[in-house]
Amino acid sequence: MRTPAISLTNLIGLEGVSRSDIQTLLDTGFYFRDVLDRPIKKVPILTGINVVNLFFESSTRTRISFELAEKRLSAEVVNFSAAASSLSKGEGLKDTVRNIHAMKMDAVVMRHPAPGAALQLSRFVDAVVINAGDGTHEHPTQGLLDMMSIREKFGRIKGLKIGIIGDIAHSRVALSNIFGLNTMGAEVTVCGPGHLIPPFIEELGVTVNGDVDAVLEWADAVNVLRIQRERMGVGIIPSVREYRNRFGLTVERLARHKKEIVILHPGPMNRGVEIDSDVADGDQAIILDQVLNGVAVRMSVLFHLLGARELLEEA
Amino acid sequence: MGRIAPLPKALLIEGATIYDPATGKTRRGDLAVKNGRLIEPEKLGAAKVERLDARGALVTHGFIDIHAHFREPGREDQESLESGSRAALAGGFTRVAVMPNTLPAIDSPEMVRSLLEKAERLPIVLYVIGAISRGREGLELAELLEMQAAGALAFSDDGNPIADGQVLRRALQYTKDVGTPIINHAEDLPLRDGGVMNQSALSTRLGLPGNPVEAEAAMVHRDLLIAQETGGRLHVPHVSTALTVDLVRRFKEAGVPITAEATPHHLGLTEEALRQFDTNAKVAPPLRTEADRQAVVRGLMDGAIDCIATDHAPHTVEEKEQDMIQAPFGMIGLESAFGLANTVLGPAGLAIEKLIDLLTVGPARALGLELTPLEPGSPAELVVLRPDETWTFTEKDIHSRSRNTPMLGMTFNGRVVATISRGSWYTCT
Ligand SMILES: [Zn+2]
What we know:
heterodimer; A: alpha/beta; Rossmann fold; B: Urease, subunit C, domain 1; 2 domains; nine-stranded mixed sheet; 19 strands; globular; binds zinc ion
């Protein structure tokens, strides 16, 4: 395989990542997607490379997706999960750094509850840092897999109209989607309850529209965000019923729109809250493609940040 | 860099421009110090005299900081009276008022007395601010009058806003007759909602919880209304928003007897300092937008804000190496205060004498104190400045026990080259 190098050395977020880097990461993602469809799914690209998956928040899906990507590339994988409570005891990034040094890791895939933690970590360690979600900041590989899934469906990203619906304020998926989609030339509208739309978000180059039906009428695809149950009934979201009626992707709501729209969801889903089961499992949803593309695009990221240089030199 | 040494028995500061903020007068000449007091230069005698060449320099009264955290007792790993005093001298400060958010809190006359006793050996004058409420819990008034009698010059639960308006109201009424200012760290905590930086497009971009300007302005507005109603002495600390500056200005124009301060970091830095997730720029109230910063500068220029106070808040390296959510609020500020303030306010058109006023008579008046003029017989309490010297602020310039500042590497215009205070002198090398 011949592939152009990317200019990134870590993947902290999609903000500021160039169009050509995203293009390359997606192209390579599609290459690995083909590999995943082969009978033998393992390639010896990262043999001898040590990767640690460092999860300060539980996220089974993301961790498994990364782990699968690492193993398909033949990397040595270590998993380390720490409860977020250990962070509040002051066992912060510093201790993490010490451990990584001691373990002589080549790459760190980190999920952390605090925005900025991945960037902070990258300042302290020599290892390649891949952000697997830093609080309410970014989740760049999710942004990439969403874009890959959109491109798979439409053959392009540029010029598409994408709606992001839900709790924008507490979502790392929303920001990575916004940065990536803007760079790739899509138009983005965010939609959700007024107090869950972060202030000044228009300055990030998106439109805000609180009317889900209007957004569905406008969009080519919508990314439906998970509403965290913790926010229900504690004065933030008054009730499941109200949320579902006003913002949920219900069967009835979709039936009112004649146009076919593509539906994404980063998972895990609250069926019957932000999305009805029949919608999630229906023809318009590409949620399972997203899962497969997640593994492929994470292979692409690992390949470019850890393996591509040597391969290119050999070529 | 600099060193602190015992003050020579006889010292002649030669060829200086001398500005006396107590009188507002400037003259050129020499200043003589003998046994820690100012004397006529001709009376210095021919015996061994140390000379300080002050040609081109400006000599004035030592600076006064009415808002610092020296962490003693309880967190001497962050700062102590001793190390804080060294930081003060390096910044040109000879008097510092310390906040009572220590462990335990300074909320009783015994605590005030014990701190003042320890302060006797320090090379600076220490002013003690007592807590408004017992344990700084914002519920019951502490023994304010007993603390005042023991020497407390003001009251504050700094760090903890007084959420209950009635508690603030009672504190203002109770201390009205003695005239000690009540200083409320004004941030409405539910509105702040866990915010770790200013709420703005940048906080949204960084995914960081934002603290809106309204959290400060709404509580300051409440405080000003209560001050107006009670006639009590309110001092508004660390004004950070354009809204707050306007509120303070309006209530002053209406004749309400209030004072206000701004920090060097709020007049010199903006939220942009947070862009790379620098925990050293995490401070409460937060660094704001350029428009807010300019409003604070205007407030200092037109007198809406009375003085500059550092809010020097030391934290250990380990504490600040945590993530943005866990890392504590605060930055040190004594050593960089004059450099940063002069770098910003000079080009804004503020005369150096006015800046000195904001660091001397302004803070003194906020605490109800008058300055002693620089005349023979007065204690030698001086700072020697080179307002045009350009220098880069580095770790070597820090005398505090902590180094939590986002200003390392910044270039300042205007430098403290010597500070003389209570038998010690700091000289910049
Ligand atoms: Zn404060």
